[in-house]
Amino acid sequence: MRMPIWLEKRASLTPDAVAVESEQNRRITFAELRQRSRSMAAELLNMGVQPEETVACLCDSSLELIALVHSIPYTGAMLMPLNTRLTAPELLYQLQDSQSRVLIYSDSFAHIAAELKQANSMLQILSIHELSNTAAVVDTRLLHDVAADAVYTIMYTSGTTGAPKGVLQSYSNHWSSAIGSMLNLGLTEQDKWLVTVPLFHISGLSILLRSVIYGIPIVLQPKFAPEQANAAIMEQGVTIMSVVSNMLARMLEAMGEARYPQSFRCMLLGGGPAPLALLQACVERGIPVMQTYGMTETCSQFATLSPQYMLSKLGSAGKPLFQSELRIVSSGVELPTGQAGEIVVRGPNVTSGYFNRDAKDSFIDGWLHTGDIGYVDQEGFLYVLDRRKDLIISGGENVYPAEIEAVLAGHPAVLEAGVAAIADQAWGQRPVAFVVLRAGEAFAEGELLDYCRARLAKYKLPAEIYAVAELPRNAAGKLLRRELLALLPQ
Amino acid sequence: MRMPIWLEKRASLTPDAVAVESEQNRRITFAELRQRSRSMAAELLNMGVQPEETVACLCDSSLELIALVHSIPYTGAMLMPLNTRLTAPELLYQLQDSQSRVLIYSDSFAHIAAELKQANSMLQILSIHELSNTAAVVDTRLLHDVAADAVYTIMYTSGTTGAPKGVLQSYSNHWSSAIGSMLNLGLTEQDKWLVTVPLFHISGLSILLRSVIYGIPIVLQPKFAPEQANAAIMEQGVTIMSVVSNMLARMLEAMGEARYPQSFRCMLLGGGPAPLALLQACVERGIPVMQTYGMTETCSQFATLSPQYMLSKLGSAGKPLFQSELRIVSSGVELPTGQAGEIVVRGPNVTSGYFNRDAKDSFIDGWLHTGDIGYVDQEGFLYVLDRRKDLIISGGENVYPAEIEAVLAGHPAVLEAGVAAIADQAWGQRPVAFVVLRAGEAFAEGELLDYCRARLAKYKLPAEIYAVAELPRNAAGKLLRRELLALLPQ
What we know:
homodimer, alpha/beta, Rossmann fold, GMP Synthetase, Chain A, domain 3, 3 domains, 15-stranded mixed beta sheet, four-stranded parallel beta sheet, 13 helices, ATP binding (chains A, B)
């Protein structure tokens, strides 16, 4: 099965529609984006880039990076977007593991790119600025279509264990993700999607692809700032935004008594279940929140909870999107409704595997084993209890950090909370909690423990609670629980 | 690739949403429709229906027929909906050609079903009424998913030459058609689609499938009546309707000075280009018309013209939908922009071929040769000049009936027009025209010929023009040009 190149098709359908609104209200149309991407593709071919080879990029969010993402299909190559927060050794590992020969970098990473080049003399490096500064070309070498099952992007993820692995994301995976999301969210001529999440994560990259498939503009804000994001919704006509819960909490704090316009129709909330207090604040302000469950391996959203269930199905990630299916299994057996086990998933948006890795540990009979723990209630709503790797086992009982965090975040003095395991002689492991207090609030550990005691079984009570200035999060805003213990007093 | 059964998935996502509003405001939800379809599927299995066998139906539009359409995937069989206007010999041909062993019929066709059974004693017949009257069952024989490339429906079409052939329509074909249409039209929570076209044609059947894929209700009106259709738009919240131009003309006549509500967002117009006068009347009344080009082989819409181009691109069918591609070829060579040739198409909505037929005449390198003639302008808009089988060749010049019809329909006295070829000693063929006059208008052939003369090249002028009471149309409302000559005075 062949697919037309998405940007090529979009630019032929609606050439004059706006593709991107970036800083200082710079706007480009789909026709202009096509021209940039075609030129970049020609330049990549001039560098010797071959079909099916990996092109790495280490770039800030920018119009140039968007054009680069869309230039790749014209070349038949695969793009590996590198996380810009990684250290040089981490980057080197991913470059080598993915067999990248070409690295495109933003000027702000020129130094580290040179360092990488020094460590790996085979690496060809070029700044994205130079790549963009090529003249428009008519180049007969550019491809007209792609194979649906060809790999478009490779994204590294740590998975449940071991070294990071490159998730293969095909055109068909990305396409199906965009279609599944549209069937769930709908699509209108007024739609405009705000992107403040990193483009090197699937949360950001997927929005770029949707923009072209749907024919809607994105508003690009390279760094998340709550006031600026609120302004885009209030004044720039944004109708959809992707967030994680601490971004949303900060936006609410920043907006005060203001309200978003009626036209704002979806706050797509990923990265784990949100605390009740946050959702209640959204209900009071009339913000339609869609909570989602997804991962790099499912090319973003896999399940989504509609806003009408925000409170009645608190903690749920909703139901799997139209083309997606899930099962809850334990030791290879499908569990009945209500019982917690490993979440396994299937669908056209699910990766076929990892770059240069045997997929047999992750896939059984075509179902991807996510390593996440959850259950499905009588009405078919998915509850993700926790990432398996974060599971705390205390005295033989499973303790889910997310559950304790949600309770703590419900306390009026607490802005956000993180929970991890400490070793315990008596119980094997016990949970320990870290909280960020709201401005002006004083820390009272005893009161917080009482608050937890009223709401949690005894074996789930944190052994200790610490007040900290901030929680460790990755570039996508996801809480990094395994780094919490570094916050313990020495 | 497996796909979940669409109705099963839909009913799990939004069980309580309305699926169908039929006569007397009878409403059923997706959960209720699922129950009906599951029961019917169990009954079909009880009749001995096997996976991949053809089940024929000869049914009026009804809730029962809708449930039957959705029951098929649970059995793995294929459905062949028969055109209810066919004669017994025509029906027998299709039953035999498609190797149907089971025929489901509406009570109004009991007589003809019995006649078919008499002619073919192997045929098992059952009324859809009886099939519907089975109790709800939990049946472990019902399938949970389907292969994406399995055939869901078979529809007979006469094609360009020869006996009717059964077009194979797979789950993937129908799915891609629904997705392509959604990417073009958008999708909102308020959407509701009015169905007055026959369900045994792809125009009607495709709406049933979209309803379940999108999660939107359909309003079913088994017979088209302009007043009733207008009422559904005015009072029942319909946002989208599928029509052919003479249905639309009759609705405009019936609505007088009334206006549709703002919420009505799309009049999807198929079956050939519409006359200017009709489109102008729609512009005056603020009716957003989307003109489309499609066929049984493309599972409905292939290209669509957005309302903003209704007049500036008069006569165009727009651009191919997102996943679809077209080329204009002649003698195997792709023609440049602006030149007319055969329209060849490719995409995931395009059939893989015909039942029990070699597809090699219709497909070349994966492109379906439609037999239709058209060209693409500088901006990528498709103009379908004519169905090849209707092409008139006069003195070596190609004459397209649709062009002459459009001119005649622009005359104030003419409601609609049809043009066909008569043999001519001097020119080989010449066009002859048939017009239906508006109420109260008198026929003046000379004046009409003058009107044509001012607008058409001499070789395109009709040799004669006749006033007739109505034009021959098929059940979908498409003009049957080859039957026009029967209207000639004896």
